[in-house]
Write a structure and sequence with these properties.
Chain lengths: 249, 157
């Protein structure tokens, strides 16, 4: 039997790492096929693998959706129901910054490699006339490290994924102040299937959308931190890609 | 499209008659009341290839002051403000016709006669190689860019 490759956007929360392995086992049983869960350390190496046609199934960051759909022929399957990607701009609670417009060119900005969150964060800095040419970027490996940069005052502002901000301990959060929080509501991660295994699309979709109906399925969902899967049709994905396209300018 | 009505207007207003690309015209009533851009939000709409609105998000409804029912099926010039120079929109349509994205600072007219500034990006929706419509996504502009446009736009008529 051929082995297909499944991969997950490198920005998954560490708590759900085992959940993706459990999901991979469920996937193989459901489709009676071999899937290998291949994790990448960063977006760069994951994109290189996708471009080299090494990926068959991906839980993708919305930032990569344009390339997956329009260049590599992937199709959407499903998303976590009612989970969207939103960003927060935060500063040290004692800093003089009370609104985004108080941040001036030259500020130090702590951020992560997460491409969609970083992009949404940069858009929320535009009203202050800030862009990559006028801020000093400090790239961090995790949102906890972004928070530490703010607390140590080695960065003036930080970009967070909303969930990651809310997961910070209350001790850390009390030392931070939110300047702005996005409410975009249509940008989300999606499970997407590649052209070489398109024959599984219907069967996999049916199984995903009924996962919450069995005890086993509910266990997998819980391990992923997913309330349930929700269908994403081609036009919804095209709409999100068009939107991402406008934001990339 | 119907003229704007006095009873919908909040505050002192001036009257203009706008003539649109399709030859129709409309009386618009304009005040000096600015609505601030809603923090953290995107204002999104889509049109068909002729510029007739097919989709709006809640922020679009909130900011324009029109109901979803009034917006869907209406030409997008429903938001045209008399302070916007026609060359800006000519540039928008010419740019889209070349297959490129358009970006600009736009002053929009609300149903109540007030206005709001946005930074808009418009792109073509291409499906199976054909343009099936356009999407516009607006974000909060910088005050400096808005101030530049307040000086520049009156000189472009
Ligand atoms: C997707 C899309 C969004 C648009 N959004 C606006 C808008 O927010 N405000 C506006 O005045 N014109 C907007 N326009 C341009 C209008 O269609 C129209 O060209 C403009 O209001 C000028 O009117 P006129 O073409 O009749 O002279 C948009 C066009 C497209 C294709």
């Amino acid at each position: 039997m051929t082995t297909h490759v499944f991969t997950v956007s490198p920005d998954f929360t560490p708590d759900h790492l085992s959940g993706w392995f459990i999901f991979n086992t469920w996937l193989q049983k459901t489709l009676d096929a071999h899937f290998h869960l291949q994790l990448y350390d960063d977006f760069h190496s994951q994109r290189a693998a996708t471009l080299a046609d090494k990926i068959d199934l991906i839980y993708a960051n919305p930032f990569d959706a344009p390339m997956l759909v329009r260049e590599k022929g992937f199709k959407p399957l499903a998303r976590f129901a009612s989970v969207t990607d939103e960003a927060i701009i935060a500063v040290n609670a004692e800093s003089p910054y009370l609104k985004v417009e108080d941040l001036k060119p030259g500020v130090k900005l702590a951020t992560t490699e997460d491409p969609d969150v970083h992009m949404m964060g940069m858009i929320m800095l535009e009203p202050a006339d800030l862009d990559t040419s006028t801020v000093e970027i400090i790239e961090c490996d995790s949102y906890v490290l972004v928070a530490k940069q703010l607390i140590k005052q080695t960065a003036d502002a930080g970009i967070f994924l909303v969930e990651a901000f809310e997961d910070l301990s209350s001790v850390i959060r009390r030392q931070l102040r939110i300047l702005v929080r996005s409410q975009i509501q249509v940008v989300h991660h999606s499970l997407m299937i590649g052209p070489h295994i398109m024959e599984y699309r219907e069967k996999l979709l049916d199984a995903l959308l009924t996962m919450q109906d069995s005890e086993k399925g509910r266990g997998v969902l819980e391990a992923l931190g997913c309330p349930k899967w929700e269908y994403v049709d081609d036009e919804e994905m095209e709409f999100m890609i068009d939107l991402m396209d406008t934001l990339m300018l | 499209m119907q003229d704007m009505k006095m009873e919908d207007i909040h505050g002192e207003f001036r009257e203009y008659v706008l003539t649109y690309y399709d030859g129709s015209s409309r009386k618009v009533l304009v005040t000096d009341v600015e609505s601030p851009y809603p923090e953290g939000r995107l204002i999104v709409s889509r049109t068909d290839p002729e510029g007739i609105i097919t989709h709006v998000n809640q922020s679009f409804i909130d900011m324009s002051g029109y109901s979803r029912e009034e917006l869907i099926g209406a030409p997008h010039y429903i938001l045209r403000h008399p302070d916007m120079p026609p060359v800006a929109f000519k540039d928008l349509w010419d740019t889209l016709a070349r297959g490129e994205k358009w970006q600009g600072i736009v002053k929009n007219l609300r149903r109540d006669g007030g206005f709001y500034w946005v930074k808009a990006t418009v792109i073509s929706n291409i499906r199976n190689g054909k343009v099936v419509g356009y999407t516009s996504v607006r974000r909060k502009p910088s005050r400096q860019r808005v101030a530049e446009c307040e000086r520049l736009y009156p000189t472009l008529f």
